[in-house]
């Protein structure tokens, strides 16, 4: 049967040898894909374990009071002074940001926290 030409519904001839090569190639690709799938599953499992351990350690540190987060750019007195200058109305947000050497987003964040603290 090798080398014989088969005809299907289309008039284009298809060789049997070409089909067997295609099937062998497909089997090799499938086996390769299964191997990659196994490796990726193992890698995902390791990453999940790492994340789980990290979360557990962070929870323990937080419970002990060792995990406090990032330090504030402005101290409490500086924040109070910034709010006071803004309330006076003499400085714009950009001026305050330049004066305290922080970003405008930090100025807005400090003002929002101050407004939330004074609101009932």
Q: Would you give an account of this structure?
A:
It is built from four helices and two strands. It is mainly alpha-helical. The protein has two domains: 5-64; 76-118. A two-stranded antiparallel sheet has the order 1-2. The model is unreliable at 1-10 and 13-21 (pLDDT under 50).
Write the layout of secondary structure elements.
Layout: E1 5-6, E2 14-15, H1 16-64, H2 76-88, H3 93-100, H4 104-118
Antiparallel strand pairs: 1-2
Helix pairs in contact: 2-4, 3-4
Keywords, separated by commas or semicolons:
single chain; 120 residues; mainly alpha; 2 domains; two-stranded antiparallel ribbon; 3% strand; elongated; disordered N terminus
Give helix % range: over 70%
Q: Estimate nothing, just give the exact number of structural domains.
A: 2
- Beta content comes to under 5%
Q: Termini, distance in Å?
A: 89 Å
Structural class by secondary-structure content: mainly alpha
Oligomeric category: single chain
Task: Estimate the global geometry from the Cα principal axes.
Answer: elongated
Put simply, the count of helices is 4
User: Average pLDDT across residues?
Assistant: 80
Instruction: Describe the main β-sheet briefly.
Output: 2 strands, antiparallel
Order of SSEs:
EEHHHH
Unreliable segments of 5+ consecutive residues: 1-10, 13-21
Major sheet: arrangement of strands = 1-2
Number of beta-strand segments: 2
Radius of gyration: 34 Å
Write a concise synopsis of the structure shown.
With 120 residues, the chain is mainly alpha-helical. It contains 4 helices and 2 strands, in the order ββαααα. A two-stranded antiparallel sheet has the order 1-2.
